[in-house]
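Annotated sample (chain length 437).
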Amino acid sequence: MNKIVNSTSISEIRAQLSEMKKLLRDKKLLQSLGFTPVQKAKLASDVRKFERTFESLSTLPDKFNEAFKEKGWIAYESLSVEIMEETIKLAADKGTENAEGFLVNFYTDREKISYLCNKTKRNLGVRATLFEVALNDHFDKRYYSSTPLFFMIIDGFVNEEEATGFFAERTDLIAWDSVVGHETGLNEISKLMSKTRRKTNVEEIKVPYRNGILHGRDLNYANPFISSKLLAVIFSLMDWKQAKNKMKSGETKEVYTPPTLEETFSSLSKTFVAKERLDQQKVLIDAWKKREIEVGVTVPINGKVDEFEEGTPERCLIEVFKFINDSNYGHLVDRIFYDSRQITKGKKAGELKGLLKCIQISSFEILEIVDESPAITVIGVQIDLKVNDKISVREEKFRLIYSDNEQNPYARGTEEGSWRVIDNFTPNWELLQLGIR
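Output written by the structure step:
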């Protein structure tokens, strides 16, 4: 079976590295390009470092799938490198059971997967509300309910994309040049979860067998392993759809074509420009210190926007409250963490209007402000929401990220970024309007 490490994109980077090393050995060419001996030495050092990192990272998805696809987990583009590395390490050091426990803890932590949840809601269309209900069941440990709902979402979503459902034998889940759409990815998970279950079983299962669960054969299915694995499949389907769209539009190639010398130099030049930016980020990150904040002393408990310091996450949040009350959804979009490559500003503003048009913020009090990292701050707020003329008093935790409008995070203070609120609150507020919560 072919491996992800041999995919088009990875093969292309490997070839570019090989060509770059050839360039570095051509002294006359480097001189003609204006490289000094010092610059050449630095570039050579950077290439070696990049190559070591690349070779390590490029093998991660294969290692992850080899270790866990039989258990119902696969790698996908949005799954962080840190999670894959830690899971593989745990499996090697303490066994697969401990590694699976680590994954379950990750997928049942609302804060840790809020970004993945929000990305999925944006891409599920008419299934977004059902997904929110299923998520609430999942995080509240009602696995007997979240499991069949996740199955419904998976099958229906794929059925709209491919005319047959996720678990149909003839459904093609392959997507060229992708991690999730590799032959060791979703295809293998579909086969595993579609296995026939002919006998009634009361023993606990940890693999989500669709037929066994939905046809009443596997009765003891309500556990975090089952629910988390299905949630992971839903997250992975968002990357799969994107890969499929690229494949259909011709943006990706099934067969690798070696780049020209000019393409190689251009691509790697961009790589090293990006590396310089990362180095600048590292300086800011190393210099960062968590603020000592005392609400009511160093920061107001409540108040108007201009009472909060410019450039702070708390000011951004107060601006969000103001824009909601003013029904200024155009300015609100600029304070919300979303991917402008996937949805236009106007469409996102319309989406927010639909979610928030019946909501006003009567009052609020900041309870705590915690700087978690150079790019993340969490603000706890007691907030009185006026929903359809009824007051709902809630305690919310707003997670803010310093980023650009393509969801690239930066250390606070970087010119390319600004504070944005991760949108994990508007779907819950919509449920309030519907009387579900």
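Annotation: The beta strands are 336-337, 359-373, 376-387, 390-403, 418-422.
Annotation: The longest strand covers residues 359-373.
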